[in-house]
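Hi support team,

I'm filing this because I wasn't sure whether my run with MU-OXO-diiron finished correctly. The job status page said complete, but I'd like someone to confirm that the output block is well-formed before I use it downstream. Pasting the exact inputs I used:
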Amino acid sequence: MKARKIKDNIYWMGSVDWDRRLFDTLVPLPDGTSYNAYLIKGSEKTALLDSVDPPMAHELLSQLEGIPKLDYVISQHAEQDHSGTIPRVLEKFPDAKLITSPKAKGMLMDLLGIPENFFMTVEDGDTLSLGNRTLKFIHTPWVHWPETMVTYLEEDKILFSCDFFGSHIATTDLFVTDEGRVLEAAKRYFAEIMMPFRGVIQKDLDKLASYNIEMIAPSHGQIYPRASLIIDAYKEWVLGALRNKVVLPYVTMHESTKQMVDHLVSALEEKGVGVEQFNLVVTDIGKLAMALIDAATIVVGTPTILAGPHPYAAYAAFLANALRPKTKFLSIIGSYGWGGKTVEVLAGMIPNLKVEVIEPVLCKGVPLEDDFRALDTLAAAIAEKHKEHNII
Ligand code: FEO
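And here is everything the job wrote out:
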């Protein structure tokens, strides 16, 4: 794709990656993604913000063909999907200065072998004049690595946010047109990438509150012409209340655990508690991550295999532990053949979750009447805990 004008002398550059289906060999991308770079021309200087994933380098380099001079290349985030083509840009423009946070400098030298003489580091709040345009650098750690910063173009009131506020969507629409679609994609992206750093992101949002931001241009997905759309959504995801909801990832081998899951879901529904159920064999992990954003309770359903939880259930527990949702309660249900340490193993896998464990229900073989009664008791206990904590 060619460079696209956002407004006078400000251009989108980069690449739309329609075919990518996995990020970091972990995160599903059902709608592809984009790597957005931005060219900003001032009356005296020209800057390029970020670059593209190395396999897409040819697109950015072709877009830069007609640009006679780059004074600055700004790297807001050292991860290679944004920084990976910077060495080739610097080859083309060897007089350009590479602007980064001090932390990013070391990371870019480590990851990409960029020589030290290219760098000019900026502190939080530093500005850079392009003549009639001014860039202000705001350090916003942990969106998504510790070195990340965003850039505010003062005269145009545009925030260039890199991963922050991004979404994985491949589209020819430069600006958000379908707000529902982009919020769904941005929520998935928040759950998978940002949620573990909720506490710091809250501080980053507070920091941005004093800026008059009209437009947000992230480095993945579409540009937000109405910045409040995504800022308000982030406030809700970071600070919003828990919902009266159980997230229930499960795996079953001979249907006993599945019978328990079905019974518990029905019992919870009768108690007025919502459930999002995920069969881990077929589920989209991104959807599970999204469901965790505001779930009051997690119940893991697993058979006992080789004396512990099924590896799929262990994966779900490990993922939940890594994503650190706000969840307050957790329980485990499942069937076993002759024994094992399923509860102990799973409970030991979630040290990051500040949860109260509600009495698990494990049954021997196929669930019988007593087991179903125990599941009814578990449903009642969950409903009661939610009520006690005003989770409605
Ligand atoms: Fe889009 Fe953290 O890279």
